[in-house]
Design a protein that fits this description.
α2 runs parallel beside α8. β3 and β4 form a beta hairpin. The chain contains 11 helices and 9 strands. It has 414 residues and is an alpha+beta fold. 54% of the residues lie in helices and 16% in strands. Strands 1-3-4-5-7 form a 5-stranded antiparallel β-sheet. It has a two-stranded antiparallel sheet with strand order 2-6.
Length: 414
Amino acid sequence: MNLQSIEQIKQQAHNLEGDHYIPIGRQDLVRAILGDSDLSAENEAAFRRFAKSLEVAFHQQFHQVLREMSEAYTDFDPDSIIVDLQSDEEATSAQKKETFYEHWSELVEKANYQKLTRVDIEKALSAAKMFGIRLSINFDAFQHLSVYVRGRTTDQWRVRKWYRWFREEEVEVPIYRRLILVFQYAKDSGPTDTGTMDSTGEQVHLKIFKNIPTTDIDILLPESRVRLTLFDRGKILLPTVSGVFLTAYKIIKTSLLASVFTGIYGLFAFIVLVGGTLGYGVKSFFGYLRTKDKYQLHLTRHLYYQNLGNNKGVLFRMIHDAEEQEFREAILAYYLLWLEGGEKGWSKPQLDRRAEAWLLEIAGLAVNFEDDDALRKLDRLGLAKNNDGRWSAISIDEANSRLGEYLALVNLNS
């Protein structure tokens, strides 16, 4: 990703409106830091070594997380084909699932996702839909359902509205850049039409999507059912009602004629009336099915391009995102404390304000910088000191030395 001007960011709707997520690549961020500073050649080389060592330190940390979470998720992965050889003495399924959810909560937090409440989800159910589709959700079908989002922003969509004679126009749509679903079906629930019914509710489904309107969360949820609009119901109901009245009129008219023309003509007229009535019923029924299929096809076509991954693929993506975010927060915090904080150091609010101002100035990003999390990482690695609430960075040479010791210790224990 190349760094962009504030004008480009606004044009492309990349202003993150206070999200914690920093959407800058590692190398781009390092280049931006070096381009923003006036370092000597020696200090620049030392900082590059520091950035590389910090990157390796976080990669090794999250490689271990990947191994642990991947192994824990195998038992609950709907796509897994691994044979379980564990003995009864090992952790029960419930314990392992609880452990998985604990690690998952930590992971999404490090990747700077926010969890939506049940109120947020239900609010989306009642809001006007960008896709024009209204759904009903059976929440009782789940024993667990969580929705995580990141990147609250706006995007430009082209839509057609009936009151503008279906002419295409651009509108601003509030969206989530990323949305993750985590759900388990309740016992004896699940997709019965696929041959893979999760009858025990043990499987944990993970799904990730991109650029989802904030009011259309419900279209992603399983166990959703299409609710027809009043316009669509009218298209189905009006022909049926008019057909009934027309049939009734013909019955009365034919009854009068049957009194004159009896015998074979009366029987033929009766058969025509019955066939016509059945025809209206069948036509209305298939009209209902066609309308539902139209909505389902529209939904499927759109989500085909919005889906980014499923199950273990989501887990891999989340670990990568968390690793990236940890690196970006830590290196930016160290850089600002090292070059600007001085020996006296900064308080957390000072670091927070300076980091957010730097991101806005350099990349045009209105990011809510996580000062607490960044300082915890630096403290854990011994790269910053806390003196009565004021934080200062150790020298770049000392930082490289400590990271070297840390990596040597990790390699020894791996």
